[in-house]
Design a protein that fits this description.
heterodimer, A: 268 residues, 9 helices, globular, B: 260 residues, alpha/beta, Rossmann fold, 6-stranded mixed sheet, 23% strand
């Protein structure tokens, strides 16, 4: 029998910590990637659970409309005020409609809609799936010859990917309208000129790129909710932890992927 | 030389199964077999690996070593399609019933029929009602959500779901935990009735001795990851096995250390 390894000196503890954290990070990335792969594979192969998908589209999309709409209208209004005020420093107040439209469609519409969904939907998915894990409902599903990836994960992924662009389109319209409202009622802009300036300036890809971003964000929101809920452990506390992790990781991944997609789109 | 009689393949077999979580050994070379049509109850203290034994058989956990065979077929080595077919032969009553709380009672009972077997909903509903009637539940709860049922009724619905597809093997995970003695006796009676009616093989885990005596043709005691005793229920009171004696008499002192 070989001699036991000598304990490492305490001075190496920081190195050990960094190494352990790095390994845990790599393991987590791999685990999420495998989970996402299984979810996507389930979404693209039969049997499909269309009823589940439609139910999720309703829960994720329709019931998120009020919160997304309210966020968009206030953001559009505040953006208009800020740009008017900031633009005044170099006599550029008149380009405010164009900048509001650009900011909402390319950036704020998809990002804010996704963040609202991260808070409302990702948390709800993690809590629901986590509670199903804690009460053995997912185990029961497996023994009833039904793949949880097809029944639980794929419908949520598909629903979020389809619905978030629609929500973003609504957020774009409401956000620009919020800017219009402030511009006309508070800042004295001509309503017709504001609309004409917006419509002539904005290009299809400004809106399209925001909708593509929204689809990616939708995938992230549903994926994080499902992943953290599915892997929840430790009863009620574990479900609570899964919910927090789902929201935080969704938000971080939304911002990170937003930067990457924006880089990609502005270079193209 | 006399030819050896050919032994029948057990319906369910754990062969040299090891399972550990981190450094903790839960199952240590577990060997256990159940013949077709028999009802085996596994008893043992808390934390001795009873639930793990069941989850390994159901393919919900993977063994570190050894094999788990259903009809001689290894669940872990089965293709996804073969595994689904194996699950088609299996019914499970989970400890907390594990009913889907977003679905009504009939959708729970007919879950496999609707989602795996793609039976039309009208037919699935009729078969769910038939399964519910077998556990003495009526049509009045068909459209009720599980959250509004008592613990005993949830167990009955769970049992109806387990037997709805007429399985070959039934698993019961602590079927009477959390129930009052009268409801527990009713659940035990229903389990015996359903196992006999279907003529299936049953494996139950419990630490409720009254339940074990009622539903088991045989009882096996699990301790430290191995079977330390196996025999008919009547021998529970006569065996001199120290583990069984301590468990039956409910003594704190003895070879079985408490979980606290």
């Amino acid at each position: 029998m070989g001699a036991a390894a000598a304990p490492l000196p305490a001075a190496l503890n920081p190195v050990r910590f960094v190494g352990r954290s790095a390994l845990a990070g790599v393991r987590r990335v791999g685990s999420v990637a495998l989970f996402a792969g299984r979810g996507v594979a389930a979404a693209f192969s039969a049997p499909w659970f269309l009823g589940q998908t439609l139910r999720q589209m309703l829960a994720i999309g329709f019931f998120s409309l009020p919160v997304v709409g309210l966020t968009a209208v206030f953001t559009g209004a505040a953006l208009a005020l800020n740009i008017f005020s900031g633009g005044g420093r170099f006599n550029a107040e008149q380009v405010m409609p164009q900048i509001v439209a650009l900011g909402i469609t390319r950036e704020l519409g998809p990002v804010l809609a996704a963040l609202m969904l991260a808070g409302r939907v990702s948390a709800a998915i993690a809590a629901e799936v986590g509670a199903m894990r804690a009460t053995e409902q997912i185990d029961a599903m497996v023994t009833l010859s039904t793949d949880p990836f097809r029944y639980l994960v794929a419908p949520r992924l598909v629903a979020a990917v389809l619905v978030l662009p629609l929500l973003t389109a609504v957020a774009d319209i409401i956000g620009v309208s919020g800017g219009w409202l402030v511009a006309v009622r508070v800042l004295g802009f001509n309503p017709t000129v504001y609309v004409r300036n917006t419509m002539t300036f904005i290009q299809e890809w400004d809106v399209g790129s925001g909708l593509v971003k929204a689809a990616v964000f939708g995938f992230i929101v549903a994926l994080m909710g499902c992943y953290h809920g599915y892997n929840a452990s430790g009863g009620a506390r574990g479900v609570g932890r899964a919910t927090t992790h789902a929201v935080v990781s969704s938000a971080i991944l939304i911002f990170a992927s937003d930067y990457l997609l924006t880089t990609l789109f502005t270079r193209a | 030389m006399t030819a050896m009689p050919k032994l029948a393949t057990p319906k369910l077999e754990w062969r040299g199964v090891d399972k550990r979580f981190g450094g903790q050994v839960v199952l240590d070379g577990l060997d256990l077999a159940v013949d077709a049509g028999r009802s085996l109850v596994i008893i043992g203290g808390s934390g001795q690996g009873k639930s793990v034994t069941l989850k390994l058989a159901l393919g919900l956990l993977a063994a570190d070593a050894g094999q788990i065979l259903i009809d001689g077929q290894e669940m872990a080595a089965a293709t996804p399609a073969a595994r689904r077919a194996l699950y088609g032969q299996v019914g499970v009553l989970f400890q907390g019933a594990a009913l889907f709380d977003s679905l009504t009672v009939w959708e729970n009972v007919a879950f496999r029929l609707i989602n795996a077997d793609r039976v039309p909903r009208n037919e699935a509903r009729a078969r769910a009602l038939d399964a519910l009637s077998r556990v003495r539940l009526g049509a009045d709860i068909l459209d009720v959500y599980p959250g509004s049922l008592s613990g005993g009724m949830q167990k009955r619905v769970g049992l109806a779901r387990a037997v709805a597809a007429r399985p070959d093997v039934l698993f019961f995970d602590e079927p009477t935990t959390g129930l009052d003695p009268i409801t527990a006796a009713a659940i035990n009676a229903l389990i015996v009735e359903q196992v006999r009616h279907l003529g299936c093989t049953a494996v139950s885990i419990t630490h409720d001795l009254a339940s074990a005596r009622t539903i088991g043709d045989e009882i096996a005691m699990l301790h430290a990851g191995r079977i330390v005793w196996r025999g008919p229920p009547a021998e529970l009171d006569t065996t001199d096995n120290a583990y069984v004696r301590q468990f039956v008499e409910g003594r704190a002192d003895g070879p079985v250390a408490g979980a606290i």
